[in-house]
Fold each of these.
Amino acid sequence: MKNYTHTTIPVRTLASGQILNIDVFRFEGDPSVPSAYIQSGMHGAELQGTAVIDFLIRFFTDHPPKGTVTLVPAANPYALNNKTGEYTQGRFDPTYGDNWNRLYWDALNNEDGIDIENLVKTIRSDAQNSIQKILRHELTRKLEQQLQKPLTEMGYGRKLALTLQRMAVEADSVLDLHCASHSVRHVYAPEYARQTVRYLNIPYVLFIPNLFAGAMDEAVFCPWWTLSQKLSVPCPVEAYTIELGNQEAYSAKDARGDAMGIINYLVHRGTCDPIKPKGRDSAESLFACRLQDYKTIYSPTGGLCEFSTVTGGIVPAQEPLAVILTKAGNEKISVALPYDCIPIVQYSSAALHQGVELLKVFSKWEVM
Amino acid sequence: MKNYTHTTIPVRTLASGQILNIDVFRFEGDPSVPSAYIQSGMHGAELQGTAVIDFLIRFFTDHPPKGTVTLVPAANPYALNNKTGEYTQGRFDPTYGDNWNRLYWDALNNEDGIDIENLVKTIRSDAQNSIQKILRHELTRKLEQQLQKPLTEMGYGRKLALTLQRMAVEADSVLDLHCASHSVRHVYAPEYARQTVRYLNIPYVLFIPNLFAGAMDEAVFCPWWTLSQKLSVPCPVEAYTIELGNQEAYSAKDARGDAMGIINYLVHRGTCDPIKPKGRDSAESLFACRLQDYKTIYSPTGGLCEFSTVTGGIVPAQEPLAVILTKAGNEKISVALPYDCIPIVQYSSAALHQGVELLKVFSKWEVM
Amino acid sequence: MKNYTHTTIPVRTLASGQILNIDVFRFEGDPSVPSAYIQSGMHGAELQGTAVIDFLIRFFTDHPPKGTVTLVPAANPYALNNKTGEYTQGRFDPTYGDNWNRLYWDALNNEDGIDIENLVKTIRSDAQNSIQKILRHELTRKLEQQLQKPLTEMGYGRKLALTLQRMAVEADSVLDLHCASHSVRHVYAPEYARQTVRYLNIPYVLFIPNLFAGAMDEAVFCPWWTLSQKLSVPCPVEAYTIELGNQEAYSAKDARGDAMGIINYLVHRGTCDPIKPKGRDSAESLFACRLQDYKTIYSPTGGLCEFSTVTGGIVPAQEPLAVILTKAGNEKISVALPYDCIPIVQYSSAALHQGVELLKVFSKWEVM
Amino acid sequence: MKNYTHTTIPVRTLASGQILNIDVFRFEGDPSVPSAYIQSGMHGAELQGTAVIDFLIRFFTDHPPKGTVTLVPAANPYALNNKTGEYTQGRFDPTYGDNWNRLYWDALNNEDGIDIENLVKTIRSDAQNSIQKILRHELTRKLEQQLQKPLTEMGYGRKLALTLQRMAVEADSVLDLHCASHSVRHVYAPEYARQTVRYLNIPYVLFIPNLFAGAMDEAVFCPWWTLSQKLSVPCPVEAYTIELGNQEAYSAKDARGDAMGIINYLVHRGTCDPIKPKGRDSAESLFACRLQDYKTIYSPTGGLCEFSTVTGGIVPAQEPLAVILTKAGNEKISVALPYDCIPIVQYSSAALHQGVELLKVFSKWEVM
Ligand SMILES: [Zn+2]
Ligand SMILES: [Zn+2]
Ligand SMILES: [Zn+2]
Ligand SMILES: [Zn+2]
């Protein structure tokens, strides 16, 4: 018997008059147990997360989670369907250029956001618990208000973001599954999650500060982090952006491994029962980099590029990361950095114009 | 005899190894007279501004300006060359989605910007004039520093913006010529330029506050505006974004009229001698709207759209602005607003998805 | 009461798993009366034809046709939904480049087509009427066979074309509604339809020979034309490609006029009763050009282009058709032809690369 | 000392007014020795061929060829520069959809082509040698005529093709280097080149008939093949399309191996001296497939696809080639064929719409 509900939410009427939907799978659990929300594919060509959620649907059917788990396997069908040649141009709105993952609602904005300072003051006498209830209630209420605005006041990307955020706001753990260009698996974690991030079993971690720049993870954790700091208590809600390797790639075999890390994390969070045989408890060693030390290396020229190193390995200062041939017959141009680095993401194609994002690297890191 | 210099600046080596350049035309004038910088086409398919600059090159050849005038007729050749079908996708970086006009350097940023407060304090004793000299010197010096960074630290759009800003920073008047979708001519002006904006002879004005959001005009005027406010003096530098009608359109005849407004403004600014026969001194009446009252109306559904009104006219509340047919045979959906408005920009195509920018309208305005 | 059926046919499962459909409206009529099939939008951004069919649905609801009329208002939803910037790239498959209107099945191909020569020989004794019945039966049967091939043997564009052709093959009149770039209304007619084409009330006519190049009109008329020639009888089936002005444009008001021409034609064909008050019987004078005299004029250089003439007017030899500015400050380049012409289609944007289709012109024509 | 000339040929003035060029490297050799022409990148994102030519330029500098060798490393800079997201949409004209490799001039067309039948008749008495001289002379002369047409009569793609064909027509061996989607290296060879194709050291061969479909190889060999058949002599001119693996990929290391196969072939043809130490003489065993047995397998549905097999291996009938997940939670759909096959090319992305080219396979082959 199916132990989940499968609903669809219409998200966009197309020029042809047809309506694109997102699918929502919900495993209803004990409301007193921490819940989770997992989505994938906000940028379209991020397929591995969909594979992971496909695995999780089957896994949770056999091993029902204790807490409620909500799964959105393809968060942005419009972006997924948008092809040029055989590739998917999914990362941004093809009409306006907006990055789909920069359109979430800022819960702490000055205009129609929540005044945490004030919230804390007003209810200083309340138990920490009830303040948290009030915060969630307020977040939910305000997102509902946003969603009730007339359609003429919301672009597609914004409305989609609000729709997803409305579901995510109910959860205690939020995992936003993405893929990057050619890349090694890595995760963006809030700085306060230094211990729990280990359980995801992803060895490359970017720690991000309490700063809203429009993304889902920030949209979820910023208000909770701010409240927790004011109350000097641990932050009860966690949100991560997980980058599951190469865009345009999809592997059911790898999805199993990716999903196992997520399940391991959910066990640790109390959303799932431990599984047997128990897997590796957590990543043995993490390479952790602060967001400010995550550097984009732009291509210094145009031409054909060959990477000299693989993602995930440590490259000493001055060692070539890539070699670029501007034209056949010309001398090749070597790209090296004055500092040691770990390449995390590489440009997807060997043909590149000057000034594109050749590499993203950890320029400093700690092993933890 | 040619009374100007024509230089080219390489801006991007392409994948093919060839280099795209921008052309710079410079009419050297009396350094004690206010200077001007005019560019066009930062978004690629903004052709009318190029036509205007083509006119100005010929006009200034016959009627040399008193002050130095620098002209960049096609600021972003990469964006101009980027075709899909017969149309130009020029508005944003086709690889990353960045709006080309959001990448300028913020002169007042906290990291490597100018501390105006401090500047004023330090040199309180100085004449206003010398403070202004120091500000311009500092802006120039810091832009030079930015441009001297290694190429691996600058994306194409950023480097292009810095290159243009470096030229604009020397001028007393900066005009950034753009086009929008189907639109009536309009101009973005800083609020302090209520009087001078009239001289441009463009009847629709958007007044913008002292706030940096990445655009050329803001990049130019924000530091000067801030300094002037601190010194309680009029702002000596002006910058405008001028929208010269429809993207993809180009008319030499209209360019003459557009250029005459610009020349009229430059006469008023002291950069050019009055021309004879003297044209209309300034726009007789302006429709002026504050940026916060400039509303984007999103398409509430997908389908085929027919606009019921033309840009530039006043539309009473509840009157249909557009009618959308989701599918042949369906009832049509009317789009109206609960308030009077003036439509300024309309979506370029009659086929649209839900949630695109159907219209941009003045929701409140004054006639001045 | 609705006097038509409205069905949907699934045509493509997208990457997101959702299915795009086409809508089919069918007004069932007397089977002994000539029938008609009208479709629009095979190239996506061809919106005026959809407006026309929307009008026809409402018109036929009030004035039921005598013969069966089948209407497909948006034949290619995939192409219609494919946006880059605000414009629609609809003309060809964004993955493979195939022109959507070159993928129909050639009824006379040597491999699995119909051998008309043989058909005529075998049944020489039959009445002309029964041969025609056999041809239609054969065409239908073979199209069914094509459609029953496994999906792994058919690309999307091919399957879509077969699906549409299967419906069109049953009709006596087939109208394929398109739009071109900036253009005057014009029609492609088979040479044998010199008289009937007048009834469409479209003043610019291109007469095409009995040659299959992949388009719907040719797919429909080639076998009938060939049979009629062999039997020396008038061709009973007619097919036209009608170009209803500018792509990306949509006007309900113009749609009324366009539809009236089509209704007038259907009255003449016997599919509809005459309407009252009777409209103009047929176009008073037509400008008719043979396909071989329809010339594409390529842009001799890149730059910004301004057309000097409007579509539909006669332009004398040597008179400039367009003026191109390669760069601001350069001499402009005039484009003229050594012969008189009538421009029919113009490039959609004023920014163009060398070697694009600047114009399509009648280089010779007769007035009829 | 440089033993080659390096010239550039302007091929397209862009909308920005700048001109794109192609580079031509020419190693002048003994005119009595067979010559070769090698180009790469007609489809833009075909980078490995450019790497191969870069290698050949350096190799021939050290080991001058005996016969003349002409190298064009990036035949279509416009296609190479055309990016959407990080990928290159190079395969077809982004404005018109034309496949860049279908625009060559058909030397045997009825309108302005060469009448081989007649040529043979007229000069029956001549030595075979002089007939060949006459053919080459005629081909050259007619291509010159084509190129001298006004620019208004030639689209960019056509003019580019003619420019390249004009150079290729002088050579005795023509190698057109391409890449496909995800693919194993393979070569298109004319059926008469059964023996010589071995020397290229590429194990997968497609034998194509004497039929012009617009491609460079056909444009070169069709007239020679036809003449040779009429004279019953071996065909003196050879032309191949070589597919050097994945589009968007570039490896200097692999380029060495690819180039060695080409050099081996040129040695066999007499254009180059044998190299020492001598490499493998020729491929040990080839999998050869006739063009008619080369099948495109279309995706039967849309969704996320995982290939179950690798390119180049034999897959038994009924064994899954790919598995498609239409939506998370759905049953997966297996794609298998009723016959044994060798997959040669796979779709580049794991996200696909119904009806795209999932695979190209050898459906029958001989090992030779
Ligand atoms: Zn992403
Ligand atoms: Zn602009
Ligand atoms: Zn069309
Ligand atoms: Zn190719």
Note: The pocket of zinc ion (ligand 3) is lined by residues C 42-43, 46, 101, 178 (CB under 6 Å).
Amino acid sequence: MQNWLTKRVDLTPERTAITYAGQQLSFLQLSQAVEKLAQQLASKLDDNPRVAILTTNTLTGYEMILALQQLGRTVVLLNYRLAPTEIAYQLNDADVTQVLQTDSYTESLANVQQLPFSEITAAPLAQVELQSNFDLDQVTTIMYTSGTTGKPKGVEQTFGNHFYSAVGSALNLGLSADDAWVAAVPIFHISGLSIMMRSLIYGMEVRLYERFDVKQINADIINGEVTTISVVPTMLKSLLNELPVGATYPSRFKTMLLGGGPSDLATLNKAQLAGVGVVQSYGMTETASQIIALDPKDALPKMGSVGKALFPVELRVAHMTTEGVGRVQVKSPTLTVGYLNKMDKYEASFEDGWFDTGDMGYQDAEGYLYLVGREGDMISSGGENVFPNEIEDVYQQLPEIKEISVIGVSDEHWGAVPVAVIEFNQGQQLTHQALVDFGRQHLAHYKVPKNYYRLTNDWPRTASGKIQRYLLQENTNLDDKIL
Amino acid sequence: MQNWLTKRVDLTPERTAITYAGQQLSFLQLSQAVEKLAQQLASKLDDNPRVAILTTNTLTGYEMILALQQLGRTVVLLNYRLAPTEIAYQLNDADVTQVLQTDSYTESLANVQQLPFSEITAAPLAQVELQSNFDLDQVTTIMYTSGTTGKPKGVEQTFGNHFYSAVGSALNLGLSADDAWVAAVPIFHISGLSIMMRSLIYGMEVRLYERFDVKQINADIINGEVTTISVVPTMLKSLLNELPVGATYPSRFKTMLLGGGPSDLATLNKAQLAGVGVVQSYGMTETASQIIALDPKDALPKMGSVGKALFPVELRVAHMTTEGVGRVQVKSPTLTVGYLNKMDKYEASFEDGWFDTGDMGYQDAEGYLYLVGREGDMISSGGENVFPNEIEDVYQQLPEIKEISVIGVSDEHWGAVPVAVIEFNQGQQLTHQALVDFGRQHLAHYKVPKNYYRLTNDWPRTASGKIQRYLLQENTNLDDKIL
């Protein structure tokens, strides 16, 4: 396939490609800026086919990613929020020798050359040959999974992965020449990068924000500037909460694509009143973004579901229990072609050609998928499978509880039992008995945590904010038992 | 990829799949009807992996094609208008043993079993396993090219060809859940079949018409029933001419996708006044429909152009003359994987991996493609390349001329010279001198036909109505010279 950026210049040179902090570039202008950067990079880069980048959502960072892609380099997208030791692990694993970094990054990284953006944009232009074609089988990006259960894995994403991801999304959400998609999620994550790739494939405007500025984004939406936004649950809530009572979004604004967890009823109701469709979705770095999505009209009748597999995607739930809960497995042309240096782990993820997501779930009679938790989080208690998520969701309704995490601890009689670690809201607390009583009202007996502990340290979290239960289990002091 | 029809039942069971003569079927209903037909077919079909079908645009014909596809058979789509000897050639070439035919077909075909639809729909149900997956590399349909230059060739189209065709079209025209596409072009041609395949891939309503009933179709468009229609030039003209003066189409109606030749200025102006975009396009059976298209906003500034290559398609003009005219060559994932039994011809169509379309054309400075004619039609006269189309277009402006075709005849001095065969309008004629004088006003000297002949027989045409110039040259009596 022809290089997507040059193809866009051929097809829609005047159409807006990106808007950032008041600047607006057409595809022609973006292409020219990127080509110039590629020429400057050529005078700075060594021969390593992999180049890492450390950037927030800035126009220059955006252009740098595209410039590396134009040069045919594999872009290793580093999470800007990681600690230097975490970054060092990834750089070493990916055998990277040079890191392009936004000027505001001040940490020192060992064994690599760090190239601030300002040094690149000041460099002389070297002659380069840009990649004329994008081979769908070629790995163009590598991202490390946040790793709720171990060492990060470098996920290799091909042009074909990104292409089919964009196609699957368009077949689900539709497509129009005047679409404009807000990228306020990080472009170093698949959620943000997939918006960039869609922009090239669709000829679509991206509205890039360095920070999730809820007031500014709401103002831009209300002003009719965009059609679509990718959000995680907290962003969705913030946008809707900040909307003045009785205000609605304009009809141009069609879709809030929600990843990273389900939405709650109150938020979905607010979205409906505001006149925008919330598309809850499920996907991962390994599938180059969403592969399962819920039609907004099903949001209330199918509350809690992540929906159905997109057109190019196949889904099955394998190894089902008698209640129909099993492993979520998929086939998809968006599926990564490998974990860098961990092909054994990659191959071990497959069963009969199906990729095992590591998530557990079930499908209802009409095929809608519901997730119940990660495989590793499942607690096997007296022959019953207990999923922390379900228990947490119930307790999260208590106003005294700020956050709760449920883990399994071994038990002589039951094999394992659920216990809860709780962070109370400022000045609040509950007794053991009150917690047990509440659980028994809403949960099967075996799902009610046997013991409750007060959080004594910070929550151990991944870079993307998810609680790492396996660390909680190992490291958290479980002595502060609630009586 | 999962079977597209069953996938549609999973994703959008209630959405309308097809409307025909007042009947409306959802994807669930269509799937049930198709599955029943497949079970009935199973009790009638032999083991031949290829099955031919002879049908006009009827609901039963539509369902039969899908049923054969569900059974994993390769569907040989026969042109209903062909003579029995022409059909016999294709049946023999494709090694077909059974032909499903609409009941109104009354001709006898040798060496095959003819199965009228009514016999199939009355057959008992047999157990069958429907194809669970559509392998993108699998040949699912075969269509014979109309052959302006020789024996028809069986074009093998894979699921992948149809998938990428639908994707390329969506990336160009956009996509919406409420799209509805008129299929009044034959479903045995790629123009019609590609609408059927898009319907499965997009989850889109097809509005099927057995005949091009201009009044009914215009009424349905005005009534807001559809968003898109595929047309050839005469259909486009008829629709716009029948529209009451001052009337406009509703905003829901977005696109008239024009194939089979360019439009004229008057028609484009009418379309603009009627408020609908005309997307002129270029494609062929070998590319599973359109691969090049002209944005409606470019229709007037780029008059005469067929546009630019769709997103998944690459285009080049090779072996250019000094004026930039050359062979139109393409790369496309929609490109046929072979000509049945004529792989030598197929392979001979490629140059450095580019498929040679057999058309001649040029690109302007902004990359828009203009076609000047078929390679075989080009006349090499005194070192100049002369294209019949250009000359015909000029003479076609004369009100006395009903139709004109220009061919080359050998000439001792110039190598070859253009001559014209003319069909005058009833009671009209022009002298040799008048024709020469008119030509000299509008054309370079060497392009003005040396001699003019009155048409003495019928025009030799392909099944799709194109004049076969090579037969004109060989067979037409060129004695009735205009003096």
Note: The first strand of chain B starts at residue 16 and ends at 20.
Amino acid sequence: MVESLQDYLTSEQQRVNSYVLELLEKDAMLPPSLSESVLYSMRAGGKRLRPILMQAAYESFGGQGEKALPVAAALEMVHTYSLIHDDLPAMDNDDYRRGQPTNHKKFGEATAILAGDALLTRSFSVIGQAKELQPEEKVYLMTYLSEAAGSAGMIAGQSLDMEAEDKESTLQELEQIHNLKTGKLLTYAIVAGAYCAGAGDETLELMKKFGKYIGLIFQVQDDILDVTGDAAVIGKPVGSDEGNNKSTYPKLLGLDGAKTQMNKYVELAHQCLLEANIEASRLQELTVYLSKRTS
Amino acid sequence: MVESLQDYLTSEQQRVNSYVLELLEKDAMLPPSLSESVLYSMRAGGKRLRPILMQAAYESFGGQGEKALPVAAALEMVHTYSLIHDDLPAMDNDDYRRGQPTNHKKFGEATAILAGDALLTRSFSVIGQAKELQPEEKVYLMTYLSEAAGSAGMIAGQSLDMEAEDKESTLQELEQIHNLKTGKLLTYAIVAGAYCAGAGDETLELMKKFGKYIGLIFQVQDDILDVTGDAAVIGKPVGSDEGNNKSTYPKLLGLDGAKTQMNKYVELAHQCLLEANIEASRLQELTVYLSKRTS
């Protein structure tokens, strides 16, 4: 019997959580405060969207077992480091994340910077030490992770995003920021999953395109939820994006325009899956899920 | 004719500088301010001690050509990232480094944090993309870099060092901090160089021991120079270590005791080279050089 999507999400979350926490709890980190700080942010939860997408891509191309799991764990560690650093006073200056004090509010700025550095650094050896991967696979996955997370990827996105504050961005500029800041790691999830299952170059290219659309779907829905989410009053801005001068899809296109734009991305994403012959896969289910999520 | 040590230091500095700057200048970093910030710190100079030690170890075990150069560049990028983050207000709060404003004084804290993150992230793909290394070699060198730089290595050292501020440390605690904070990356330089030249496991273990002594020699001489350096008045503290409550070798052992301790390390380092049959190598010359350096 095929697991329901909700059960799948829950079981994949649990699987990656167990793996990554067990791994980090075993690490001989010094001093104890650094270890506590790293574990605090890893334990804080979150959707584990990137590991779930990676496993779904892995399975969609016939992968079985836990080969992709260390790579998924490494990716979630990179994502977590980026949240710790983005929350810092010099960056977004956030006091809370997921209802808990941010890492630097709890452990101080110095430890938060080092905890982020530690997670980023550790992510590479998690892949390097993976038992089921061949050396060439490890090199591909580590090198690509460095590129996706680096100064032409996620770091560029965060840097551009900060420069864009209090400025009106065009739709093109907005998409560039999202493609870099969230799209590159989401794409990594999809491509790495397909790669671990043995997908060829042509398929990986299709998955790069698919990952980009997934990133955009994720972001447009984020912006839409900021307007319609909690109060559920369509067309009446209630969210935090309005207050600051951040460009969003609803601001640039109107709420209906944003929804139309998202449907276009959903269609384009589906097209990629069709071309890759996996149109009825878990990835298609996740595409629809992401476009309709309410939190 | 064998190059003099001074010529060797200069030519190796130039070689790694050209390589790393050309590589980073070609990178498509966004936005320009991030690129400028990364290049600013990489161009700020420094002794390039780690790349020099790596190349010397490589040559001492018969290595020829540029096989180790990308690894040396990656290591120097990791070292540079650590300086940028260590200088931050939340950490050591330094305004100047090598006579220039620190990265965050010049570009702001947010960009400095991201520039450090970018250098750390990029270092792994520099090794991953190296032309002369085999996949298994890349995996070894990337995984080991992650371990040496991570939360059981350099990051642990920086974290312990901050916790030790304004506290009296024992000699044992002091050595632990130095072994982690500077020793791990210096050891990486030696071991990675030997590894690139094809050294076997037993030799690599000897080089790990040698690297540890090199790290300690470096640090004791640092502490001694802080006392005797500029004013050249032996036994009369003139340096910055006295002002803050940092533990140093001269404080714990007296100046003569610190010198005796260093000579012991020099002897132990030499013993490792003897056992590895490279007692007359560039590494021996560098050991003596580091124990007698005046800057």
Note: The CA atoms of residues 212 and 249 of chain A lie 16 Å apart.
Amino acid sequence: MIEEKGILFILSGPSGVGKGTVRKELFDQATELKYSISMTTRNSRPGETDGVDYFFKSKEEFEELIHQNELLEYAKYVNNYYGTPRTYVEQTLAAGYDVFLEIEVQGALQVKENFPEGVFIFLFPPSLEELKNRIVSRGTESSDLVLNRLKEARKEIEMMDAYDYVVVNDKVEHAVSKVQSIIQSEHLKRERVAKQYKKLLEDEL
Amino acid sequence: MIEEKGILFILSGPSGVGKGTVRKELFDQATELKYSISMTTRNSRPGETDGVDYFFKSKEEFEELIHQNELLEYAKYVNNYYGTPRTYVEQTLAAGYDVFLEIEVQGALQVKENFPEGVFIFLFPPSLEELKNRIVSRGTESSDLVLNRLKEARKEIEMMDAYDYVVVNDKVEHAVSKVQSIIQSEHLKRERVAKQYKKLLEDEL
């Protein structure tokens, strides 16, 4: 193993694009990836374990962590905070594991500000038509809401420029294979590994 | 197909590292890659076809092309020129094909100057010991020559900084799979494809 530190990969994209499905399939195949564990102020549910499903914190603790810039991103939904703790990510990377974060576009842009060395992958819908179908087929949205979410999706697609890669989610297995290529090739980048290779050489001389 | 233009990939590395073997195995698997056809002033041999095996040119023609900066790189061996014609590469890329060039380090550095948008992959020996074994096992070199080539190899490894990726050639099939990941992920880079994705979006609105 020439490299010691892991890489933070962020999979993001408009809602309805299928981020969760791609992440799930990826984790079924790439078992050495570590999923970023979120921090939340909501109560734990039966069966949930602190430090496994979530890091559970009080509202005061969470706000103190925000204040200390200890969250790579966070948001508040219905009176509860959700966020990505910096320390867990950094410790996992330092231990040599890649960390994988699947997240909405707004959150990804926050991570980009706080952790620009991450690798940002934008999941793109095969077409706006298809994105609409996917949003509609969730079945829970009125047609006004669907239109709003499509408008939102178009805005999010405009934010693509903050990302390093774009993967079209035409078929889950294709998208997963592309994400795997990105993960592998990022580990081969010269600026990441040249120092170690040169050291290897010096050790042999 | 979101993208129209191909990418020039350059596989290089110290002599003895196994560039030819990796390239051969890669081409057995990736049939849509186009191999860069070299230009030479040496006479064609029986069975060789102009424009397939080589582009055969007279010395005067070749020197005129050098003068016109029509070669991405060239060198002279035993009174004959060998080089990589820019026009063939550019036409093949424009037709949407990736072009693959396997070449010595000195040549790769020339290509880098003339075609910096290429993707440069450095093939690294698993160890200097192994590199020595490979050079020796070719069986045609005296021990002085082997030492010289090792010294040369160490110098070439120092030139790694001009490259985009480093792939260790521990096993051919691993190296090939890594090169394939690089080829795939380079096509997913946002700066290459964002314009086309945004156009796609506009066309749908």
Note: The two ends of chain A are 20 Å apart (CA to CA).
